[in-house]
């Protein structure tokens, strides 16, 4: 059974809409800038790939509210492109960040324990519902009329890829003929920025912000946080053709592999990443030689880029296909990254153009990769999207080109 993609939705720091994002990505434009949403005084990292809503002025949106709003935007766009309206009539699988009540809300009550928060009438119950994990997905399911309980997954930075895998499996099992796969994240707030800073995971190259995310370079020093969301409408190919939908591409396969080495680090030999990519290829019925482009996890941290490059060369040989990291332009969107980057692969396949890895003025040649410093035309029929998360949660998705029109 072939799983067709009939709708794509994207919101990143580069803008709202899949085509708007593609226009910026394909020309190497960065969406990373200084944070103005909150005071960054005293923080080592003061930059991010922010998605700031106009309504932000005078109103503090919570992470949960932002996640829901971004999810609504991308799912709405994807459905419109697919020519579908609510009720959708298929399941929703969505990658989201783990949710907890944030500093401003805790401080506004003067409490920091769950029972007291629940008792802090009259606003405690709406706040509790807003922050309830899965609450945003339930509201999105109601908004778009999806069927069953929404499948919410948090596999760290692999969450968006995991959501695609869940949606594909639901269709393959015959539970539905169509499904929504999405990822949405807006974790950028003071507490999260401080925590990642304490882990020394963030870039501190604050000026100029556009130069901070530099995957696969000698001077890479950490990732840059980003807001964003992506959504795909997936259908049985036969179902899409029956209703006359335009097929934008295919999800050919997905694979995952646990890496139980460390809560943040990858196994030094790269074996879990290799297994993950190989399982995706096996699921798609392809060989490494069939892949014409890899959208890397490529976070711009010293260790991740080294391990991913090593694993790619282990599986694809010493002359792997072109590899780029679009996180160099849109930052690391965490739980949404897998969905966003799968969408970018589909757009690259449709346009037959490779998006670049910007900031490649000091490429780490020891990694042995063609990192696509400038976008270029490229003939290919299949791409691999990698997403690797803390806790050893690794997902790879294989995307295929749509029919030639």
UniProtKB/TrEMBL annotation:
Alphabetical list of PROSITE patterns matching this protein: KS3_1, KS3_2
Domain Ketosynthase family 3 (KS3): 1-401
Keyword Disulfide bond applies: no
Keywords, ordered alphabetically: Transferase
Keyword Methyltransferase carried by entry: no
UniProt pathway annotation: Lipid metabolism; fatty acid biosynthesis
SUPFAM superfamilies on file: Thiolase-like
InterPro entries per UniProt: Beta-ketoacyl_synthase, Ketoacyl_synth_AS, Ketoacyl_synth_C, Ketoacyl_synth_N, PKS_Beta-ketoAc_synthase_dom, Thiolase-like
Pfam families tied to this protein: ketoacyl-synt, Ketoacyl-synt_C
Domain of life: Bacteria
UniProt cross-references to Gene3D superfamilies, sorted A to Z: 3.40.47.10
Family: Belongs to the thiolase-like superfamily. Beta-ketoacyl-ACP synthases family.
Name of the featured protein: Beta-ketoacyl-ACP synthase
């Amino acid at each position: 059974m072939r799983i067709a993609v009939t709708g794509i939705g994207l919101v990143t720091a580069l803008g709202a809409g899949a085509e708007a994002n593609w226009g910026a990505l394909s020309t190497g434009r960065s969406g990373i800038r200084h944070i103005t949403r909150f005071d960054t005084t005293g923080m080592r990292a003061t930059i991010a790939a922010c998605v700031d809503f106009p309504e932000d002025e005078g109103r503090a949106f919570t992470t949960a509210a932002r996640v829901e709003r971004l999810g609504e935007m991308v799912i709405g766009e994807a459905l419109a492109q697919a020519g579908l309206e609510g009720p959708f009539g298929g399941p929703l699988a969505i990658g989201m960040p783990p949710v907890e009540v944030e500093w401003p809300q805790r401080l506004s009550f003067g409490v920091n324990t769950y029972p007291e928060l629940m008792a802090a009438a009259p606003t405690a119950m709406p706040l509790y519902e807003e922050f309830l994990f899965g609450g945003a997905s339930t509201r999105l399911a109601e908004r778009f009329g999806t069927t069953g309980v929404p499948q919410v997954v948090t596999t760290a930075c692999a969450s968006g890829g995991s959501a695609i895998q869940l949606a594909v499996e639901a269709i393959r099992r015959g539970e539905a003929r169509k499904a929504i796969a999405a990822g949405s994240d807006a974790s950028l707030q003071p507490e999260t920025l401080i925590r990642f800073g304490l882990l020394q995971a963030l870039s501190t190259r604050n000026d100029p912000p556009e130069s901070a995310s530099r995957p696969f370079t000698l001077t890479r020093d950490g990732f840059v946080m980003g807001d964003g969301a992506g959504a795909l409408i997936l259908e049985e190919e036969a179902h899409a053709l029956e209703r006359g939908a335009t097929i934008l591409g295919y999800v050919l396969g997905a694979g995952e592999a646990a890496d139980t080495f460390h809560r943040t680090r990858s196994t030094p030999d790269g074996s879990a990443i290799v297994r993950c990519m190989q399982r995706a290829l096996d699921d798609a019925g392809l060989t490494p030689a069939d892949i014409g482009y890899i959208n890397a996890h490529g976070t711009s941290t010293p260790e991740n880029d080294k391990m991913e490059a090593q694993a790619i060369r282990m599986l694809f040989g010493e002359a792997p296909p072109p590899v780029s990291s679009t996180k160099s332009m849109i930052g690391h969107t965490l739980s949404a990254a897998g969905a966003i980057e799968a969408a970018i692969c589909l757009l690259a396949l449709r346009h037959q153009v490779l998006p670049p890895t910007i900031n490649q003025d000091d490429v780490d040649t020891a990694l042995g990769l063609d990192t696509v410093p400038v976008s270029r035309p490229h003939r290919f029929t299949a791409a691999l999207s990698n997403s690797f998360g803390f806790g050893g949660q690794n997902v790879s998705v294989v995307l295929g080109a749509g029919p030639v029109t």
